[in-house]
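Suppose a colleague, Dr. K., hands you the sequence of a protein chain of 442 amino acids and asks what its three-dimensional shape might be. Before reaching for any lab equipment, you can write down a predicted structure in token form. Begin with the sequence itself:
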Amino acid sequence: TVLFSSLAALLIFGAPIALCLGISSIAVLLFVEGSPPLNLMARSVVTGADSFPLIAVPLFILAGDLMQQGGLSKRLIDFAASLVGHIKASLCYINVLASVFFSAISGSAPATVAAIGSNLIPAMRKQGYKTEYSAALTAASGIIGVMIPPSIPFIIYGVTAEASIGKLFLAGVIPGIIFGIFFMALSRYLSRNIPVQGDATKADSGTAGESSITEGKVAESNLSESDAGNSKPASGKDVKTELRNSIWALIVPVIILGGIYGGIFTPTEAGAVAVVYAMVIGVFVYKDITLKDLPRIFAKSSLTSGSILVLIIFATTFGRLITLERIPTELAGWLVTVSENPIMVLLLINLMLLIVGMFMETISSIIILTPILLPVAKSFGVDPIMFGVIITVNLAIGFCTPPLGVNIFVASQISGVGIEKISKELLPFLAGMLVLLLLITF
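The predicted structure, expressed as tokens, is then:
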């Protein structure tokens, strides 16, 4: 009671989540009779930080920042445009496809939205799409960033659950591809009434903009396509040119996953390889990063990594107290009284995770909830690796749900459109996400 009531009170008053976890744990250790001594906190902090797999988190964050600053996202967009730029509503396809490509090198949903949105949202606005729709599509596509490896939430789950990070990476590939295909199909349907080339009429579907489609090169993203479906497919020469330009970005996931599953290096060592690779490509090949830029990029990554690592070390004490109080066992017993049907139990878990994802950040939620829910899921025969996919995909939907909705905030900042308008355009995407979540779960 003290643990969760103090946590809830601190969250309501807006305290940083790391402090919420730490202070609520200290409250139990100090004021609840029969609790372990206070030095449990010190031991937990040390053991929580002393983790080789955990080193992968700051490494992949730094690699993602280097790749974003190093021009890899722009080249991935150009390659996606060469593949699908001739199709009607092709900017929608390019948006999703580029998000899938960038997800495989960033591991972060907000980073994917920032990298792809800064190029595609202005391009889609110029081609006649409503800005709020473009921002909503980018925010939705960004959640693929936590499914396709190297996924930072998968790393956090693997550390917390003591599960194989390599297996988690592999398990996230198919869900990521399924979400990508769905977003392409849905965006094509929502864009069905965009006027074709030369049609001066306004679109009336609510997903097209106030101006007619115009032919020409889009300066913001260096894309050249009509978006009306009447242009010729890109020639093999064009595709080869863009493939050659983006090949250094495209082989990143090949190096990372090939090295892990080929037994060459561990997921943690893969993060170090990715950092060195991104630095060499950004500085010496693409030359979009200078040596003077590196301290700024390192500082930005350090701030992000520091906030996550502080969360993890304080959550270690929180998790130990949960285990000592047998909360997972009690929760499993309560769920059995509700239903012995695994499907019903998974529905209840999914519903709880969806609600939590609306109010808490994904990494924090994984750290807090994994020690509670994983034993429950295992008691009903759910594989720990598959449960990691379920919990990550579920909480990823929280990136697109107010009031927290980090992807919405990033898309709003890039597009200049209010959160309310973007949230309204996100509704059909959210409905589809829920269907896909059930598909993945069951």
